[in-house]
Design a protein that fits this description.
420 residues; alpha+beta; Helix Hairpins; Heat Shock Protein 90; 3 domains; 5-stranded mixed β-sheet; 8 helices
Length: 420
């Protein structure tokens, strides 16, 4: 529900409640006033008739409005005022009257004077007030609807313009957001906050990007130097076996650190959306090339590979990222396989499924998509392969799942239209 619509509903509800209370107050006020005026007029007319009788004038009787009757004998003077209902022969229906009845002694004779004045029934008064207030409320509703239709888009266009600009905002754009306030203070304050936030985001992204690139570059150079020096030491014939073993351990650690540096840099670049270029990539052909790269490892474990490079699966992605995704899927299937195991690769027009034999997992498969999570803690793996796969899938809006069935492990990527 839109903000203005919700505000109008609350306003109309409050107005309806207010009109209901006002209608009740108005009903009581009007009925009391009408009765008071009718009573005052009846009493005044009763006095006039009594004065006329005293003067010996003939009083015209007009039932049921005016009735004057001479009574026999003496009676105690009294005056009563009340509401009554009588059948009006002229109107042909029962009507409500305000009635004053008096007994007066005039010139030695006793008279009963009855005066009546027709008044509006309370039900009719209530209905009239209710209809009037309903008409006012309906008019107000129609006015608000018309006003909203006329000024809604004009009044709120700066807000929706800012919202559209914010939806299209990207940390890669070179210029700040251009927002309009329409001369409205609240929108101007909102735009200032949005501009400040987006500029801070762009600044932080640039700083993070520069830090990642600089840190990777600065770390890679000394790592390469260390690796080169360790390789030189290993060529020294004067080394004994213990020294050579220690240098070999240090060399392996440096290589692992170098791979870690490059992999984390790749993850950072993917998350920062630095792989902007995309093209049509043939996944089937890419799998064939990758299998050739892993052929030595496959033969070493005597793994049976079942893959028919049809049908051709074409996706839109950055070639390097598509290569990284396929490479990590196949490397995972080969590295965590067992001797005399199998790898089954299935392609459809929208998915890639890689199944392989292996040992049971000690925890839930979904945990392996987290960084530095490994099925075997003693493995020299970085535990980042499937994290890269998930990050690439998230980038393009693809969906990756990992399932296990006894000793069979299955990774499936469902390719969707690129959202990059």
């Amino acid at each position: 529900m839109r903000l203005l619509q919700k505000t109008n509903r609350v306003y109309l509800l409050f107005t309806a409640l207010l009109l209901l209370l006002a209608g009740g107050f108005l009903y009581v006020l009007i009925t009391d006033t009408v009765e008071e005026e009718a009573s005052e007029q009846l009493l005044s007319n009763e006095k006039r008739i009594a004065t006329a009788l005293k003067a010996g004038q003939q009083i015209t009787v007009l039932p049921p409005v005016i009735e004057v009757e001479e009574l026999r004998g003496r009676r105690e003077e009294r005056l009563t005022l009340k509401d009554t209902v009588l059948f009006d022969a002229l109107e042909g229906e029962i009507e409500t009257f305000r009635q004053v009845t008096s007994v007066r002694e005039v010139n030695g004779s006793t008279y009963r004077i009855v005066l009546r004045q027709m008044v509006v029934e309370r039900v009719k008064s209530l209905a009239t007030i209710g209809v009037s207030l309903a008409a006012v409320l309906l008019t107000l509703f129609l006015f608000l609807a018309l006003m909203n239709r006329i000024i809604y888009h004009k009044l709120w266009s700066p807000f929706y313009g800012s919202l559209k600009a914010l939806k299209n905002f990207s940390v890669y754009q070179n210029s700040p957001l251009q927002l309009e306030s329409g001369g409205i203070t609240e929108f101007a304050e909102l735009n200032r906050a949005i501009s400040k936030l987006t500029e801070k985001t762009r600044s932080d992204f640039r700083a993070l990007k520069e830090f990642s690139e600089n840190a990777s570059h600065e770390m890679q150079t000394p790592l390469a130097v260390i690796q080169a020096k360790l390789d030189e030491l290993l060529q020294d014939v004067a080394l004994n076996e213990q020294q050579a073993s220690r240098i070999q351990v240090a060399s392996s650690s440096v290589q692992k650190l170098s791979r870690l540096n490059q992999t984390l840099l790749l993850l950072t670049k993917i998350e920062n959306r630095q792989f902007i270029y995309t093209e049509a990539v043939d996944v089937s052909a890419m799998i064939v090339r990758q299998l050739q790269d892993f052929v030595d490892f496959i033969q070493d474990k005597a793994i049976h590979v079942d893959f028919v490079p049809t049908p051709a699966l074409i996706v839109t992605a950055n070639p390097a990222l598509a290569e990284a995704l396929v490479s990590n899927l196949l490397r995972n299937a080969v590295k965590h396989n067992i001797p005399d195991g199998f790898i089954f690769i299935k392609l459809t027009d929208s998915s890639l499924k890689v199944s392989n034999s292996g040992t049971p997992l000690p925890h839930a498969p979904a945990m392996l998509f987290e960084r530095f999570q490994k099925a075997d803690p003693s493995s020299n793996s970085l535990g980042l392969g499937l994290a890269i796969v998930r990050t690439i899938c998230n980038l393009y809006g693809w969906h990756v799942t990992y399932e296990t069935n006894q000793n069979t492990h299955t990774l499936q990527v469902d390719f969707q239209p690129s959202q990059y």
